[in-house]
Design a protein that fits this description.
single chain; 416 residues; mainly alpha; 0% strand
Length: 416
Amino acid sequence: MTATLARILGPGRIELIEDVVQEALLAALGRWPRDGIPGNPTAWLVQVAKHRALDVLRRERLLEDRESRVREAIAQWGHGDATLVADDPVIVDDQLRMIFICCHPAIPADSRVTLTLKLAGGFGASEIARAFLAEETAIHQRLVRAKRRIREAGLAFEMPEGAEISERLDSVLDVLYAMFTEGHTAHAGDELVRRDIGEEAMRLGALLLRHPALARPAVHALMALFHLHAARFETRVDSEGELLLLAEQDRTRWDRAHIAAGVRHLERAASGDVVTRYHLEAELAACHTLAPSWEETSWVRIVGLYDAMLDSFQSPVVALNRAIAVAEVSGSESGLRALEALSGQSVLSRYPPYEAAVGEMLRRLGRHQEARIHFASAAERAGSAPVRRFLERRIRECSAVCEGNVENREAPPSRA
């Protein structure tokens, strides 16, 4: 809806468009339970939002300039709004254009992903802040600056061409990656996996591949990563919604169709001469997903892939994941040393998985009192309820050992 109305009213009216979209959704919440869901919900919502926008434009004395353009654009959809459906090619193109507008080079680089997640992905500022380990006030400021820049630059609602597509594609892929990451492991809420967000990222990635100029190896690599992770969606929690570690998951229930699609995209990704971070992450996912069992996973290969990623770009989160993999190759003591070497990273001080990883290494080494402290620190910051409950179980386990209720010995490794 946001993308479609941006085409009609112009991206310079983003604030108005966001407002009328919310009003349309609120109207649906009020009327549909009473009157029933209309035969074409998409058309109903767009129609209500359009009329709300026209009312505002009238009040702002801008209707004379825009009304004819709005009505002409509406007429191009066919027989009124009744022909609108969610997968209409016009709406599909609108969504793609909206993503590329948000990634326009006129918009500051640190705001492109944030703006796209807000306008095209429906993310709130707090969700975006958690995804990027940033302060919520900083995210709000980015959004304000980006929307102001759209107005000031008078950006057109159109797809870029030629070299300009390549210039923006990296930011677009960053957007989809961040969106899928939130779907794979939600940073807040009662559910660990938010399939709707993950599947939306996959749908938008598939749209990119439908565009001849965008069907590139990096896009295939990203789609390979998505499919290989999505194959495990159903097994990442148990029947009670509790987190299941990778070693605990029933591999026979992993989605074979997603795995096959991931392998196909990984093969297509190999056609280029540039290896991106998405290539490396997709191969990491393949190492896990294609391994017959946890014990047969190639951890040496996984450490090598993390090394390659760190050679390409420095990331404290990648370094954290590498340290965990080192523990599987060389033991928990080596893993703990690698984690302690990262303790000065200010970003990781706000990142609960870091404290949880340190706690896990200490638990494996039988240092339960210290482990309990780190698990408690991670639990305090955990936004996701399933992750918090998992950490609370770890705290109880360590407390039981410290209080002498169970044998105080080196704990078996836990497979995250």
